[in-house]
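Design job #97: recover the sequence.
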C-alpha cells in the first residue's frame, strides 16, 4: 500500500475561520452482545431499549476484528472488538450514525440507526485513508469529519497529543471547533494515503 505524508500547519486567532486543502480515525476495545444471526450487508431488529448491537463481518461473512463508532452532532463513542461483536448501551439520542472500520483500512457506514436496534451486521468494504491530527494552543477542542454530508467522526483533541483518524478516501470535509473556535478543512485523499495536520492556535 502506498503512503504519502504531507504536513499541513495551520495557525490563526481563535474565533476565525479558514479553509485549506488537506486532514482525519482509529479507536479502543470493549465487550460483546449475543451473536446476531445474519450474514447480509446489514439487518436490524428491536433489542434492548437505549442500546445498539451487532457484528462486523469480512468479505466472507465471517466476524472480523474491527473498530465501531456511534456519532451524533453532540459527539461520539467508540469501541474496538476482537470478535466483531459490538454493544453500546445507555444511549440518549433517538438516532445515530454507525461506522465500522478494520485494521486493513476498509470502512462502512449506516447513516440512520435507531436506539434499540440489534442484530446489525456491517461489512467494511470501502477503502480509506489516514490523517494524523495535532492541535496546540488550548487544552482541548473537538474535531469532526464529514463525508457525503454525514458526520463520520467526532472526537476530542488534547493539547499536543496526536490522534489518528481513518477517513473515507476522496472528498472529505473537516471541522475543528470549540468555544470561540472554528477551523474548516477540505481534502481530497487517495486510498491508502496518509496526511498530517497540525493546528497551532493562539489567543
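Job complete. Output follows.
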Amino acid at each position: 500500500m502506498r503512503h504519502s505524508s504531507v504536513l499541513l500547519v495551520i495557525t490563526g486567532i481563535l474565533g476565525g475561520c479558514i479553509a485549506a486543502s488537506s486532514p482525519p480515525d482509529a479507536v479502543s476495545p470493549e465487550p460483546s452482545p449475543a451473536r446476531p444471526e445474519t450474514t447480509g450487508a446489514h439487518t436490524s431488529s428491536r433489542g434492548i431499549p437505549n442500546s445498539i448491537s451487532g457484528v462486523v463481518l469480512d468479505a466472507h461473512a465471517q466476524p472480523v476484528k474491527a473498530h465501531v463508532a456511534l456519532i451524533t452532532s453532540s459527539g461520539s463513542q467508540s469501541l474496538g472488538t476482537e470478535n466483531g461483536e459490538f454493544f453500546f448501551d445507555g444511549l440518549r439520542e433517538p438516532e445515530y450514525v454507525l461506522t465500522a472500520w478494520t485494521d486493513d483500512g476498509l470502512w462502512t457506514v449506516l447513516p440512520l440507526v435507531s436506539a434499540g436496534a440489534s442484530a446489525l451486521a456491517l461489512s467494511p468494504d470501502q477503502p480509506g485513508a489516514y490523517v494524523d491530527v495535532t492541535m496546540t494552543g488550548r487544552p482541548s477542542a473537538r474535531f469532526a469529519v464529514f463525508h457525503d454530508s454525514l458526520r463520520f467522526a467526532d472526537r476530542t483533541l488534547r493539547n499536543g497529543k496526536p490522534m489518528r483518524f481513518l477517513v473515507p478516501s476522496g472528498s472529505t470535509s473537516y471541522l475543528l471547533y470549540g468555544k470561540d473556535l472554528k477551523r474548516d478543512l477540505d481534502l481530497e485523499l487517495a486510498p491508502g494515503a496518509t496526511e498530517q495536520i497540525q493546528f497551532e492556535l493562539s489567543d
